[in-house]
Amino acid sequence: MQLTKEFRNADYIKALAEKIRRVTTRPWNIMEICGGQTHSILHYGLDQLLPPEIELVHGPGCPVCVTSLELIDQALAIAARPDVIFTSFGDMLRVPGSHGDLFTVRANGGDVRVIYSPLDAVQIAIKNPDKEVVFFAIGFETTAPPNIASVIQARALDLKNYSVLVSQVCVPPAMHAILSAPQNRVQGFLAAGHVCSVMGYWEYPPIAEQYCIPITVTGFEPLDLLQGIYQTVIQLERGTHIVENAYSRAVTQEGNRAAQAMINQVYQTVDRNWRGIGLIPQSGWGLRDEFSTFDAQKRFDVGHIKTQESDICIAGQILQGLKKPNQCPAFGKQCTPENPLGATMVSSEGACAAYYRYRREN
Fold first, then answer.
1. Is CB count within 10 Å lower at the N or C end of the chain?
2. Which residues of 228-256 are buried (b: 16+ CB within 10 A; e: fewer)?
3. How many whole angstroms separate alpha carbon 305 and alpha carbon 301?
4. Distances (CA, A) of 168 to 129, 136, 284, 313, 337
5. What average pLDDT does range 212-220 have in this prediction?
6. Pairing state between β 188-192 and 215-218
7. Measured distance CA(360)–CA(48) in Å, rounded
8. CA-to-CA distance for 351 and 356, rounded, in angstroms?
9. How many CA within 13 A on the CB side of residue 182?
10. Can you give the pLDDT at residue 1?
11. 112 three-state secondary structure
12. Mean of pLDDT values over 315-325
């Protein structure tokens, strides 16, 4: 608790913001990858402490936000089956599909349960052998180890009634997609500390070199974020482009090798659709063939379900840093947390939800 207070110390924050002002001489656009970082920035008003030359743009780092619409619809189809207990983290229940959400399925009689660990879903499968138990395995690299731990345990227990609907995505391919786009405006990246705590940051130097862009690994507290911004601005002003670690208390370059070994054991790299953005090649993970019996998409034959994105929601542009939430004509009108058009308005890490909560008047 004392450590948390120190990283939120107002005097330290003001002093670091002043250092950033002193070193900034030109306009710079810096993207924070993670939606949790976006919420911290707006919650503490960090962007308002920065000089006007620095604009923070919000990236696609919210796993709920980028889970494709077709996967949401596949989840709804599976969850509506009378022989299924569908399990998920709570933040997925209000994410809109083409027709309703998981709360709607539950209201109509579906057995949809909120869990706090994928291993809870395994226990539900053990206690309900007459039901098919499905876990919605979403997330970036951070959630991959616990998600696949459930599959490993289910196989060890020889559970025949357990499966996972996988929506696992990876950060580096998304960075490539953003930086290679003709409309790209990102000049520096704040990398997500929790992702790097698992994966390290050994994948990032080739990106920094290829696109001549500085990348700084940082955490989520105000001082963490400002330190990351400070180090990024110094690089931008000097014209350098390396990867720096401003979150060394939690992140090492090599990351958690044991977790990475688990990931490689169960997952293989696949193409993945990102909601509002589209297909990003080799940007996700799916189950290897030897674990295919735990693949809910195959077990329930829902892979054929295809969808059409809303022509009103501009979440894809927001997730690529091209627009801010309050630049959407539907923001706070047709699209609210009670009646969302997209996941970015209901996710606890969504940029639209952050703006609605902290910046609606602006």
1. N
2. bbbbbbbbbeeeebebbbbbeeebbeebb
3. 9
4. 27, 10, 5, 23, 25
5. 97
6. parallel
7. 15
8. 9
9. 0
10. 45
11. strand
12. 88
Interval 90-117: pLDDT, tens: 989 999 998 899 999 999 999 999 999 9
Per-residue tokens: 222: 């105000």
Per 3-state DSSP, the chain is made up of helix, strand and coil in percentages (nearest 5) of 45, 20, 35
Closest CA to 60 of 197, 160, 186: 186
Span 16-55, pLDDT tens digits:
999 999 999 999 999 999 989 999 999 999 999 999 999 9
Q: Tokens for 18?
A: 């002043």
Helix or strand or coil: residue 26?
coil
Structural domains of the chain, ranges and CATH numbers in brackets: 1-307 (3.40.50.11740), 315-357 (no CATH)
Please indicate whether residue 156 or residue 347 has the higher confidence score (pLDDT). 156
Q: Are 246 and 224 in contact (CB under 8 A)?
A: yes
